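Ticket reopened. Same input as before:
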Amino acid sequence: MTVGSFFAMGGYARYVWPCFALAISILLWNVWSARRYHAQALKRVRRALAMAGSNGS
Amino acid sequence: MSVGAVSVLRLVLRRELTLSFRRPGQLLQPLVFFLIVTTLFPLGLSPQLSLLRDMAPGVLWAAALLASLLSMDGLFKGDSEDGTLEQLVLSGQSLTLIVIAKTLAHWLVSGAALVVVSPIVATTLAVPVEAFPIMMLSLGLGTLTLSWLGAIGAGLTVGLRRGSVLLSLIVLPLAMPLLIFGANATDRAIGGESAAGALYFLAALCVFTTTLAPIAASVALRITLE
Amino acid sequence: MWTWFYRLASPPSVYRVAGVFAPWLLLSAAVFIVYGIIDGLAFAPPDYQQGDAFRIIYVHAPAGWLSMFAYTLMAIAGAVGLIWRIKMGHAVAAAVAPVGASFTVLGLVTGSLWGRPMWGTYWAWDPRLTSELILLFLYVGVISLRAAFEDPNRGDRAAALLAIVGVVNVPIIHYSVQWWNSLHQGATVAKFAKPSMPGSMLWPLLAMFMGYMLFFFGVLCMRVRAEILNRERQASWVREVVRA
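Engineering reply: fixed in the latest deploy. New output:
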């Protein structure tokens, strides 16, 4: 099998490659989105702590 | 004063029906909507009778589902707005019974009314008269099941902003099996074949939903109100 | 007897444990997925009927399975939160929803792309794809419902009830759609022809299933930690953790 025939996927390249690209993208999106969500939650907690700190003790 | 279960059902049912009939205009809205929606399809597609007959089961059922959903929003909203709903929840009477009575009353004036009107609509879609009994039976079972599903959705969305859109979003996917079997029963009746299989399944869905949905709907109400 | 469970399921311990597990889960997922993709694309033999197009199964089938698994998990977690009032249940349910929905989308799009060379059309109301589509609607419903409430506790409980109602309906929907499709089976529409699987085709597929599952749980750990922070903002243990 040559590199060319590998990319051609027996003529089905334009169906196969977008599928794999989409799969990788969705996996990456999940990781990115989860990290962002966690960061936002941390930020919110820190902000609440800062406000409580400045108000009370 | 403890009131028996049947009395609760009777009282709430009578109250709901009395309230509904005080606004006869509002009662007509789902029916008119049903008529209008079914008119959209011939206008959008073709007046050819054979084509209409083929489409009829799907069109009738989609329109009936949408028309029922349209009024489902009002199941708890009126009472929620004037505080009666909270009184009912706190009343100490079984909330499930109250939900059953309210939903039945609602179905009588919307779903059942649709069933009564359906022959008129079916005629405009070239459905043969012989198919009417099965069609009406399937619509009856289907709209009743939909009312139960709608009660769960209404319980979950009462008081929410844009609640009615969310209600449809929640209920329609759950109603798709109804549509499949109900339309199929009507289709077979039109074709002169036995609709027994589809009807049995529709009836099974109806019984299943009738037993479980009221409990789910009363849980939903407690979640949103307490 | 249950105290160890309650302690294990307590927010601070879950926060800690999930934080430890997440990177390992994701790492091992990466290993399985990389192997699965490379083997599936380059070394598995082409299918007799579908040629190289069948390779889409390596990203499609695990996605479809995971979308169903995730919904069931979401419903169970919601039930734990609703019935036993264990708040971690709601945190897990909320974390699962977007992940499960994303895999449903993946399953739908890859399924549609796979369908194009097989059926000649991007969408042919195949029973499995149609069921996946309805499942997506159910996900969207649960996510929207939770978001519509101002009080997050109410939102959690409402979403949990809806997920439970949904999960009961999923088998009904599956059966109905399959039945509906079998009635209207046209000559040109075929179900997804499952290629008969010799070992060289099967191993990468199993690896992908494993990889997707590990990945799912890894991402779930990350999201659950964020959900815990959102829900336990007031608790003292959170302050210690955040200051660190």
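The first helix of chain B runs from residue 5 to 22. Chain B has ten helices and no strands. Please confirm and we'll close it.
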